[in-house]
Amino acid sequence: MQSMQTLPYRKLINALLVYCLPTVMIGCANDSGIRANVTAIEPTSSDLSQLHLDGNGNWPDSNWIAQFHDPQLERLVSEALAQNPDMQIAQARVLAAQAKAEEYGSARGFSGQANAQISRARLPVAIEPFNANVAGNNLPVDVSINPWATPTGLLAGVNYEFDLWGKKEALQQALKSEQMATALDSEQARLTLTTTLVKLYFQYDYYVAMSDLLKEQIRTYGSIEELADARVNQGLDGDYDRSDTQLKRSALLTQQLTNEQNVTLTQLQLGLLAGAGPDRGFKLQRPALAATSDAVLPAQLPANLLGRRPDIIAARLRIEALQAKAESTRASFYPDINLSALTGLMTTDVASLLSSDAIFASFGPAISLPIFDRGRIRARLKADYANADMAISQYNKTVNQAFGDIVQQLTSISSTDSIIEQQTRAVAAAARIVEIAKTRHERGIGPNKAIMLAKLSMAAETQKLLTLRAQRRTLQVELVRALGGGFSAGQYANVSKPSSSAQSNVARPTP
Fold first, then answer.
1. Quick one: which of 496, 502, 493 has its CA closest to 39?
2. Per-residue confidence of the chain (511 residues) as pLDDT tens digits?
3. Helix or strand or coil: residue 132?
4. Cβ atoms 187, 151 nearer than 8 A
5. Rounded to whole angstroms, how far apart are CA atoms 436 and 450?
6. Cβ partners under 8 Å of residue 184, min gap 6
7. How many CA atoms within 13 Å lie on the side-chain side of 168?
8. How many angstroms separate the CA atoms of 132 and 95, rounded?
9. Secondary element (H or E) of residue 431
């Protein structure tokens, strides 16, 4: 009868759980109005048609350094990528992010543990002496219990955490996206290191070539000074021309000393970038660089650039990571459900540990409902979406800077190529003047000094051309960097376009 009477109460409790619990959960999940507010940009060919960014060329190859045909430069870059501390730091960060994702992934679903313990403890004595009535006689009874015990236990337990609302899955996705973004940071560090070293190597080549040119000018001024000395000693000229020549030669000597200092400092920086110390830079031979090629852009540049630059893909992945983290926080509005089981042996006397009376076991579910944490979770969700907004804004900034960088390099390359063309003509004209001066001198109608002055004029024009060509090489490398340096999305090709209005993937309960 008693069981029949309690049956309606059980039905009532079950009905309350079935119909009321979802309503309570929905009441706790008050996340309305909390969304990202920034929209990610996606440039298209039509948006940039006026800039004429499309071409018929190819994207930079991953081994783009080979176009300069300098084995010494290729060896130097290989050493830097293997030994430079910045690259080692970037690679260590990748391993740390990977380990963090693996650690969290291994903790999902089933978990278990086993432990054993033994201790010596004094238990409180709860039995007081008392009088017992035996056949009408009161007899004092004193029950003596040893208060010392040896609690001993051997326990093993398992726990399974259900991910009904996708909280753990979303957080796992956030960690995975962050891990990939960190790996792309390493690729960006690789590109930055490579382009920095190549540009510095170009500077080294420029300073070495400039040194030869300055030495030639100094020798020419020395010859002119000898002629001036002779004419002054013969009383043919005053001291003005000789002093003017000495002044110009001294200026060149000062410039040569500065240039030699630049050569040494550049060698030092190259050795440090290579990660091998200053001595590596001082062992460098004279560079043997090939001429630069034309700057031809690849086809469909606006659409494909987003998958060719590691910094853009990394920014996109960080948006995904923060949006996934927001979804994980949103799932915190709903209850956590766990199943746990524990079994083992427990006793207060180590001697009876293996007896059947020491067997202990428990099994059951656990439900955690954040009834009073709604305000804290809403605040955390707002912060997550604010961070996502910042990531989207950073992504937009990176994309805009990428296209701006390409336009800037192309504009500079086009202008520099035109100036080089004019300066090449100037050098050729100066060379013809030297030949004319030599011919006039051979015919006896022109002084030897005219040849020397013509050589100095040609050297000055050559110096300008040398500087322009060095700038052109640097711009070529900057364009390669702006185009991603031969990076290909590969395993990151499926990274989705960042969305400011991503819908929640949380499985929301319905009443």
1. 502
2. 444 444 454 554 455 455 455 545 554 556 666 777 888 887 765 455 555 555 566 788 888 888 889 999 999 999 999 998 888 888 898 888 888 888 777 766 667 788 888 777 776 665 666 666 665 666 665 555 667 777 788 888 888 888 888 888 888 889 899 999 999 999 999 999 999 999 999 999 999 999 999 999 999 988 888 887 887 777 777 778 888 888 989 999 999 999 999 999 999 999 999 988 888 989 999 998 887 766 666 766 666 777 888 999 999 999 999 999 999 888 888 888 888 888 888 887 777 777 777 787 888 888 887 877 888 888 888 899 999 999 999 999 999 898 888 888 888 988 999 999 999 999 999 999 999 999 998 888 888 888 889 999 999 999 999 999 999 999 989 999 998 888 877 766 666 556 544 444 444 444 3
3. strand
4. no
5. 10
6. 310, 311, 313, 314, 317, 492
7. 16
8. 75
9. helix 374-442
Q: Which two tokens stand for residue 340?
A: 């746990």
Domains and CATH numbers, the chain: 19-108+167-333+377-492 (1.20.1600.10)
Residues 186, 207 contacting (CB under 8 angstroms): no
CA distance 39 to 392: 7
Contact between residue 486 and residue 64 where contact means Cβ atoms under 8 Å apart: yes
The label of the residue with tokens 């021309």 reads: 241
| Side-chain half-sphere exposure of 206, counting CA atoms within 13 A | 20
Q: Rounded to two decimals, what is the model's pTM?
A: 0.78
* Cβ–Cβ under 8 Å, residues 308 and 488: yes
Closest to 67 (Cα-Cα) out of 221, 220, 292? 292
And the tokens for 358?
A: 């020491």
Q: Helix count (H) and strand count (E) of the chain? A: 10, 8
Length of the chain: 511
With tokens 């805009």, the residue in question is 400
> In terms of DSSP bridges, do strands 137-141 and 130-134 run parallel, antiparallel, or are they unpaired?
antiparallel
Q: What are phi and psi of 258, to 5 degrees?
A: -65, -40
**By the 8 A CB rule, do 405 and 332 touch?**
no
Residue 485 structure tokens: 């340096």
CA–CA separation, 448 vs 193, rounded Å?
Answer: 51
> What's the CA gap between 361 and 339, in Å, rounded?
14
d(CA 38, CA 390): 8
Distance CA 412, CA 499 (A): 35
Angle made by CA atoms 22, 25, 30, in degrees to the nearest 5: 130
**SS3 call for 336:** strand
The structure tokens listed for 335 are 């209850």
203 contacts: CB under 8 Å, gap ≥ 6: 262, 266, 470
Round to whole Å and give the CA distance between 217 and 200.
25
